[in-house]
């Protein structure tokens, strides 16, 4: 049996409850408490639970968008939770996230082409801007959007279309792991499949 792509052990992310004039911590919200799991290369894992049980916080903790207090998370044999800021930035090409709310995760000032190509530019994917534009067109086709839509702004799309743009944006840097936070909830039932 091969080593899993992602192995998480004892992940814990708590948030302080603050009170009083000086905002002293009076307790903690235990958003994630001792979570462990494995994801094999090429595999899928679904976290299922009621609203507010910590599913989103697990994903945000793995990407270090919120800082966990304890645990280990090995991605391809390297502990993500022990990496410094520069090292975690380098790993972000290999691990992408699709957020639940597409409107909040898309910059309203950027055309779709620029939003999807932003990661490609940051990680040096594509030979030039023309090549990146071709890649954006192919990604939009892959998520069942008209490639000409790349010249529009996020507010010109429906919620489901914006979510497809976010999926294309996550795939643009060719990640090895995609964390999806209810990534298909905004899509039509026929498209979710």
Series of H and E elements? EEHEEHEHHHHEH
Q: Any idea how many domains?
A: 2
Shape, principal axes of CA atoms: globular
Uncertain stretches of 5 or more adjacent residues: none
Total beta strand runs:
6
CATH topology grouping of the largest domain: Rossmann fold
The CATH class of the largest domain is identified as: Alpha Beta
CATH architecture of the largest domain: 3-Layer(aba) Sandwich
CATH homologous superfamily placement of the largest domain:
P-loop containing nucleotide triphosphate hydrolases
Major sheet strand order: 2-1-3-4
Helical region count? 7
DSSP strand content: 15-25%
Question: Helicity range of the residues?
Answer: 25-40%
What's the alpha carbon Rg, rounded to whole Å?
18 Å
Main sheet characteristics:
4 strands, antiparallel
Structural class: alpha+beta
User: Mean pLDDT across all residues, rounded?
Assistant: 91
Distance between the termini: 30 Å
